[in-house]
Predict the structure.
Amino acid sequence: MNNKYNFIVLIIVILNLIFTSTPILCIKSNQVKKIGTSDQITVSGISSGGYMAVQFHVAYSSMVRGAAILAGGPYWCAKASVITAQLDCMKTPELISITELIGATEFAATSLTIDDPSNLKNSQVWLYSGMNDTVVVPGVMKKLVEYYSNYIDNNNIKTVFDIQSEHAFITNSFGNNCTYLGPDYINNCNFNAPWDFLSQFYGELNQPSLKNLTKNIITIDQSSFIPIEYTTITAGLNNLAYAYIPTSCKDDKSLCSIHVAFHGCLQTVATIGDTFYTKTGYNEIAETNNIIILYPQALETELNPKGCFDWWSFTGADYASQLGVQMNVVKSMVMSLTN
């Protein structure tokens, strides 16, 4: 394993010396096997989960038709550097070069480690930035608008940048005061974010269910999807993930669309229990609109003490591509739900 890792690091150094103007997204030589396409899969995420949702959207653009991002940023923004992640991609957006990130995206596509980004043109994108966000400042999300505008018609990009919220997932019925910064990073701003972006993705929705829906939440053995060369610790993934299965979809999941909801840092089950997958408003909408909600779960580790999804390379240099372990695990769980 150490020899393999050292070889990967060596190749990254060599390629960066050759292509000094283009960041290297991944360096494995084997071609990625293409997965089946679907027009029913959408994603969303907050903070690190927002970055993860962007990565998943771009890497699997042939199967993902919509992405909702709260307090995230452009694809490959961190460029495999935790320092760049914390500085450029959270606090100093003027340091972000969209031209460079577009070049990195195209390089990854030509190396067959992500889908052809031309697929993005048919996507719907919903972007949220709180006016008072001090963690991922609004300018970073404006850079994400710029990134997506290279691939998607502006008519398919909706921005919500006019709510005075802090850094949090936004609801209309649960959480802290809208301007509060702190656990559980879920704020009640009298705005139903899931309703807004799922309406954009799926059209006119039925009203959310008012029933107790906990019986429809299932546990998924997420660890069983992790490749054999990784552990839950090196993959940064919890043993278990969760999914909401609408009543009408229990016997035939093919009747349902699939939406993947990525939590943010400090929002794992170890930190806030079931709050993210029961209190954010997804399930009530899913029940009445035949949408399965998959809730992947990150894991707190020494390299990832806040339980973030990987958007800066703590799981490996290929984190943002289809070769990335977290990306691959989530894709595999999605495909298992479609079968």
User: Anything to note?
Assistant: The chain is about 30% helix and 15% strand. Residues 1-39 have pLDDT under 50 and may be disordered. The CA atoms of residues 126 and 196 lie 9 Å apart. The first strand starts at residue 41 and ends at 46.
